[in-house]
Amino acid sequence: MIAFTLVCMGIGAAAAIWLARPLLQEAGAARLIGVGAGAFLALGALSAYWVNGMPDAPGAPYQPRMEALRGADPETLSPVEQEEWLRDAVRRDGRDIEARRLLGRFLAATGRELEAIAHFEQAIRVSPQARLFNDLGQTIVTLNQGTVTPEAARAFTSAHTEDPAMPEPAFFLGAAAYEAGDRAAAASYWGGIIMRLDEDDPYRAAIASRAADLLSRPSMGGADPAVLTEGAERPDVEVMIEGMIARLETRLESEPADVSGWMTLARARMMQDNPQAAASALARGRAAFADDPGARALISALGAAFELEETDA
Question: What is the model's pTM?
Answer without folding.
Answer: 0.71
